[in-house]
Amino acid sequence: MKKAVVGLLLSVITMLVMGMVMLFSTGAFARDAHGDPVYFVKRQAVWMAVGIVGCCVAACTDYRLWYRFWKPIFIGSAVLLTACYFFPAINGSHRWIKVGGFSFQPSELGKLAAITFLAAWFTDHKGKERQFLSGFVFPLVGVGILLGLIAFEEDLGSTALIGCASILTMFVAGSNLIYLTLSGVAGVTAIFVAAINMPERLGRLMAFMDLEKHALTSGHQQLQGLIAFGSGGIEGLGLGNGRQKMEFLPFAHTDFIFPMIGEELGLLFTLLVVFCYVVLVVCGVAIAMNARERFGALLGFGIVMLLGLQAAINIGVTTALLPNKGIPLPFISYGGSNMAFALLAIGVLLNIYRMGISEDAVRITPRRFVPITPRI
Asked: What is the DSSP letter of 198?
């Protein structure tokens, strides 16, 4: 277990350092840098500090408080997601709440709220996981409320991410695999239907089929990302020597920072990033499986799935293995809300580890918590 938490921390620290270095290299060329070459570095440092404080607080606070307060967290998340519609749209979507000079994306809180709800639900309904209503319909409806609010913001990427992580968490909790498979197929179909009815999303789907044909429109970002990987090769062009960030590759400091790592630092560093995420997932699952009780195991597993799937989607998009969807690379991409909540999630994992090795945890564990053997 000690090796698991060490591996988790080392992988996160490595990605945080790499993210700040690459942000320093790419941020100065962003269109909205306001003439300040370190504009995004300073803002990211503030959010990282907030996230580290949140991580430390979460690591030192009994994670079972999330079980006790899951209802206020769920309701608060739904209220904030609804409040987005009362703020001006940014990039054509109502996904942010902007206060002063900072913007906050409630869907990040929605991710944790959905997983916390599922962990609490299956803790309270131990033995009913195989039932159609208690083990499938009710938890899916609960998550569906948050997914619906996020989907109407036209954030199909976060919707798919939370949906996939939720289904995997329900599977580990013991839900019927046939029901989950059918719901997964229905979810993918619904997202596809929604995408083809949105001109911008439909363009991205068509570009995914033939990037070169749509090189000047919807396929531009992914094609430029592939050019960045090809230019970097194995050794890279050198830190700061990348060319695609000079307005050839839009959002090089946010969603498409992974190709910039490939261009400037080369194949070895892109593989290092992938390796860090693999370590994070393996160590996170190990920590979750050694939790003292059911809620901790499900909460830890859900958090790991959120981070791991988000990284997989971003890497898949930037390497043109998936249709283009703006979703940040955890711990590396510029994005305050995602950075803060990703670090908060790591803090929760650390507390699950601390409680797992604490002798006092057995004595204070409520009776209604039941150990779990995840189906993995």
From this structure: S
The CA distance from 182 to 193, in Å, is 16
In a domain, 267, yes or no: yes
Determine, yes or no, domain membership for 147: yes
d(CA 127, CA 129): 6
HSE of 76, CA atoms in CB hemisphere, 13 A: 11
Q: Structural domain tally of the chain?
A: 1
**CA–CA distance, 23 with 312 (Å, rounded to integer):** 20
**In this structure, is residue 370 part of a structural domain?**
no
- Structural domain range at position 263: 2-364
Residue-wise pLDDT for 154-180, tens only, equals: 788 888 999 999 999 999 999 999 999
Taking 70 as the pLDDT cut, the residues of the chain under it are 31, 33-34, 91-92, 101, 359-376
Closest-CA residue to 121 (of 106, 148, 145, 140): 140
Sign of CA dihedral 10, 15, 16, 18: positive
In a domain, 373, yes or no: no
Q: In whole angstroms, what is the distance from residue 273 CA to residue 177 CA? A: 32
